[in-house]
Amino acid sequence: DAKTTQPPSMDCAEGRAANLPCNHSTISGNEYVYWYRQIHSQGPQYIIHGLKNNETNEMASLIITEDRKSSTLILPHATLRDTAVYYCIVRVGAGAGNMLTFGGGTRLMVKP
Amino acid sequence: GAVVSQHPSWVICKSGTSVKIECRSLDFQATTMFWYRQFPKQSLMLMATSNEGSKATYEQGVEKDKFLINHASLTLSTLTVTSAHPEDSSFYICSARGWDRAGEKLFFGSGTQLSVL
C-alpha cells in the first residue's frame, strides 16, 4: 500500500471549514484513498473513501487531485466534536473491509 | 451501520495474570476480525488477523503464545493477553469486516484500555 504524508496537527475555528491535506505521491492506479478518524480513547470511525472522483457524504467531502497524488478531506462546518486524529490511508481495492495500515494522522483541534 | 461491541472498555490487572478481551459483531456476521494495539500518542498497529474457524495470522514481532486469539463463531473473537506484564499496558482495539448502505467497510470496537500493575 502507498505511503501517505499528513501534517501532524492542525487547528480550526468552530463553524469554519476544516481542510485536511494528505499526500500520496506513490499511489498506484488501483489504490483507493480512505479517511478515518479517531476521537480520544475510542475506536476509529470511517468517514469517506474514493478512487479518483470527488466524493461527498453526510460527514465530509473528499477532493482528489487529477493526478491523484494528493487529496483533501473537508469538514464543511467543524464543531468541537470533530476534534480527533484523522487518518488518510491508501490501499488496493474498493472493498474497505480489509485490514488497514494506519500512519501518524493529523490531530485536528477545533477551537471555540 | 454495523456495530462492533468490545468488552471490557478498561481493565486493571496484576502482573502475571491473564486478561480476556471480547469483540462481538452485533448485527452482522464477521468471518474476519482484526486486532490492533495503540500506545499513547501513537498510531494503531495491527497485531493479528482473526479468521472464524481457523488459526489467527499474526504480524511480525507479535508473540502468538502471548496474545491468544480465538474466533470460534461468526460474531465473536477474543484476545487473551497471557501472563500480562506492565509493558503490555496499552489500548487494544478490534475491528470487523461488515456492510452498511455505503458498502463494505471495516467497523471498529470502542477499544479496551489495559493497565498491568
How would you describe this protein?
The complex is a heterodimer of chains A (112) and B (117). Chain A has no helices and 9 strands. With 112 residues, chain A is mainly beta. A 5-stranded mixed sheet of chain A has the order 1-9-8-3-4, with no helix packed on it. In chain A, strands 2-7-6-5 form a 4-stranded antiparallel sheet, with no helix packed on it. Chain A is globular. The model of chain A has no long low-confidence stretch (mean pLDDT 91). Chain B has no helices and 11 strands. In chain B, the strands form 2 sheets. In chain B, strands 2, 4, 5, 6, 9, 10 and 11 form a 7-stranded mixed sheet that branches. In chain B, strands 1-3-8-7 form a 4-stranded antiparallel sheet, with no helix packed on it. In chain B, a hairpin with a 2-residue loop joins β7 (67-73) and β8 (76-81). The radius of gyration of chain B is 14 Å and the shape is globular. Chain A binds chain B through residues 38, 41-46, 57, 87, 94-105, and chain B through 4, 6, 32, 34, 36, 43-46, 49, 91, 93-95, 97-99, 102-111, 113.
Topology at a glance:
The complex is a heterodimer of chains A (112) and B (117).
Chain A lengths: L8 E5 L4 E6 L7 E8 L6 E6 L4 E2 L4 E4 L5 E6 L8 E9 L13 E6 L1
Parallel strand pairs in A: 1-9
Antiparallel strand pairs in A: 2-7, 3-4, 3-8, 5-6, 6-7, 8-9
Chain B lengths: L3 E4 L2 E4 L5 E7 L6 E7 L6 E7 L5 E2 L8 E7 L2 E6 L8 E11 L2 E6 L3 E5 L1
Parallel strand pairs in B: 2-11
Antiparallel strand pairs in B: 1-3, 3-8, 4-5, 4-9, 5-6, 7-8, 9-10, 9-11
